[in-house]
Amino acid sequence: MMIWTDVNEIAIELYDKYPDMDPTYILFTDLQKLVMELEGFEDQKDRVNERILETIQMLWIEERN
C-alpha cells in the first residue's frame, strides 16, 4: 500500500509504469491522476499538496537519469 508521503516508492513506480514519459513538464493535475492510478496506491485525492507533487516529480526525473 502506498500513500502520498511514499514519494520515493511512487517515483519508482511511475518510472516503471511510464518509462517513455518525460515528467519534466507534466502538469500537477496529470501527475496526481497518474499516481492515483498506480497499483497499490490507496490514499485520498485531497490529502496531497503541491509540495508533495513537486517532490514526486523531481524524484521521477532523477529516476530517469
Order of helices and strands: HHH
Class inferred from helices and paired strands: mainly alpha
The stretches of 5 or more residues where confidence is low (pLDDT under 50) are none
Q: How many beta-strand elements?
A: 0
> What's the CATH H-level superfamily name?
IscX-like
| Fraction of residues in helix | 40-55%
Q: How many strands, what sense, and barrel or not for the largest sheet? A: none
CATH topology-level fold name: Arc Repressor Mutant, subunit A
CATH class: Mainly Alpha
Strand content: under 5%
Number of domains: 1
Tell me the quaternary state: single chain
The rough form would be described as globular
Count of helical segments? 3
Tell me, rounded to a whole number, the average pLDDT.
Answer: 97
Gyration radius from CA atoms, angstroms: 10 Å
Per CATH, the architecture is Orthogonal Bundle
Span between N and C termini? 26 Å
Provide an overview of this structure:
The chain is an all-alpha fold and 65 residues long. The protein has one domain: Arc Repressor Mutant, subunit A. The protein is 54% helix and 0% strand. The mean pLDDT is 97.
Would you summarize the structure shown here?
By secondary structure, the protein is mainly alpha-helical.
Q: How are the secondary structure elements laid out?
A:
Layout: H1 7-17, H2 28-36, H3 50-64
Task: Considering the chains and any ligands shown, give keywords for the structure.
3 helices, single chain, Arc Repressor Mutant, subunit A, globular, 54% helix, 65 residues, mainly alpha
